[in-house]
Amino acid sequence: MSKSGLSAFWSGETAFSAELKLMTLPKERRKRALGQMGREIKKQSRKNVKQQRSVNGKGFKGRRKERTRKGQMLSGFVKGSNIRQRTRGLSVTVGFKNDMMGKMARVHQEGQTQTIKAKKMSAQQKANWRSEPATQAQANAILRLGWGTSRRRDGKRKKISRQYIMENLTKLQALGMLYELNNKRKGKQSWQVNLPAREFFSNDAKWVKQMAFDVVKNELGKGR
After folding, report:
1. Which residues pair with 115 in a beta bridge?
2. What's the average pLDDT block by block, 10 residues per block, for the chain (224 residues)?
């Protein structure tokens, strides 16, 4: 529930008609109404994740790479006590259990563009890769990028197999070939990764105000 993270906040001091009526309620009933507001935010946020839809009803943008085990995106943020609420005076705040989770939730809520810098290979690792055989993952990537045949002495072309790559190339040679084949990143020292916004957390000002108004109206309808 850190201010640096993501939170939803409603205060009785905001300017709409229910605020004065909320202030007239006995302390326990006022606390109950504020608590209900917090629960409504958590309930709606969990519903958004369950339906994989944002606060405005649009579906979440899919993952860049599909996972073998399919699961709901962002479900970890709304599980159990990960999402919490605090009532104090005439206000209720809903947020996450620690600063790190709050900041991560904010990144997913608002989206972010990150710059990833290429990590320089150490001299020791380079020396090791000069002698170690190419891995199966490297071989698969090389074949996937189109290097699948070579010309024999008789002029005919021979199909290259995964086994051939692993037996005849070192890790360093395979890495160089991958850079050559995948020329989109050749020579790049950094590149950008875009994380799309997935607005799962219900802190939309218009929705929060209407929800708060309805909660106070319902509490007032119970009489004194």
Report:
1. 192
2. 53 56 84 93 95 91 66 88 89 90 90 74 86 90 77 64 88 85 60 83 87 88 74
